[in-house]
Amino acid sequence: MQGFVMKQQPTPTASPKDYEELIRLIHERHDQMSKTYQKISVYLTQNPNEVAVQSVNTIAERCGMHASSFVRFAQALGYKGFKELQVLFQKRLATAAPGFEARIKALDNELMNREDRSEYGFLHDLVVRDIASLQDILERTSGEDLAMAADVIEGADTIYLIGQLRSAPVVELLRYILTMLGKRCVLLDPGGGLATHMARTMKSTDALIAVSFRFYANEVVNIVEEAQKIGVPVVAISDSTLSPLAKSAKVLFSVPEHDYTFSRSLAAPMCLAQALTVAVAARVQKDDTAPRIPTVTGI
User: Fold this and answer.
1) How far does CA 122 lie from the centroid of its chain?
2) Taking Cα atoms as reference points, which of 254, 253, 242, 299 lies closest to residue 279?
3) 3-state SS class at 125
4) Closest to 233 in 3D by CA, of 157, 170, 284
5) The pTM of the whole model exceeds 0.85
6) Of 288, 291, 282, 281, whose CA–CA distance to 174 is shortest?
7) Residue-wise pLDDT tens for the chain (299 aa)?
8) Which DSSP category does 28 fall into?
9) d(Cα 125, Cα 117) in Å, to the nearest integer?
10) Close Cβ partners of 40 (under 8 Å, ≥ 6 residues apart)
11) What is the DSSP code string of 212-281?
12) How many other β-carbons are positioned within 10 Å of the β-carbon of residue 208?
């Protein structure tokens, strides 16, 4: 049974009655859960649509564990079994944007029925999955969070940016566009081992934009935590609301990743980064109808 129980048994409470309450409870208890329960929590928060429509056996198989682990997880949260917990995800899906789930299912069906293993076939599959990811961020991202993040970025004296490994292209794009908008930017480049030392020059009047996905770079997590401690507002882009960046972020944008291929796409986080810069451009240029990003060449 080791690994299937909470590290610290919480005081029994009534089971959550709606999806939002359940997610709040999962976040509250996440740090006290076993690694198995934490893995289940991440899957549930990243894939609510799949949880609503798939059987517990299918969900467990995708997580690489036994279905009984999901049953015990649900019972630890006060439910009789997983099906009772699943009802909350089904109610959430019933109120989703009309046609959204149908589009996702259509894309999945298209991929499942394809037999083209050519180079063009790989391209086709990647594009189709990117379309699904882009539709997903429309469902997950709130206008309030976008506005708050844009306010933080626009009001900062200096914008520090950090993102390592495959997150690096996202912060490079942000640095380029924000610099062209006239914002002072500092990229916390790990080259030379100076990123942590450079981060210590941050002040509370600055802002930090951090991008990190599994498996989270330790230096990025540590810098984000230190920024929060000294009062630097953090705008984070990560793959889960249970990401280690979440606790320190003033605004967190969750862009779930799915293990579709050996190479996870950056289409969705790149799109989100561009949306943030367009929002900042609208504020800097005082034009919320047609903000423009300046170019280097002017052509």
Assistant:
1) 25
2) 253
3) helix
4) 157
5) no
6) 281
7) 344 444 444 444 578 888 888 988 998 888 899 999 999 998 898 888 788 888 999 999 988 899 999 999 999 999 999 999 999 988 887 765 555 555 555 555 655 666 667 888 878 778 877 887 788 888 888 999 999 999 999 999 999 999 998 899 999 999 999 999 999 999 998 877 889 999 999 999 999 999 998 778 889 999 999 999 999 999 999 988 888 898 899 999 988 765 544 457 889 999 999 999 999 999 988 877 778 776 666 55
8) H
9) 10
10) 63, 65, 69, 70, 73
11) --SSPPHHHHHHHHHHHHTT--EEEEES-TTSTTGGG-SEEEE-----SSSS---HHHHHHHHHHHHHHH
12) 28
> What residue has token string 């062209």?
180
CA distance 37 to 40: 5
| H/E segment holding residue 82 | helix 82-94
Answer left, alpha or beta for residue 32, where phi above 0 means left and psi between -120 and 50 means alpha.
alpha
Cβ neighbours around 29 below 10 Å, total? 18
- With tokens 């480049």, the residue in question is 189
Q: Cβ(73)–Cβ(37) under 8 Å?
A: yes
Q: Compute CA 104 distance to the chain's CA centroid, rounded to the nearest angstrom.
A: 18
Whole-Å CA distances, 289 to 182, 278, 286: 20, 10, 9
Contact yes or no for 149/276 (Cβ under 8 A):
yes
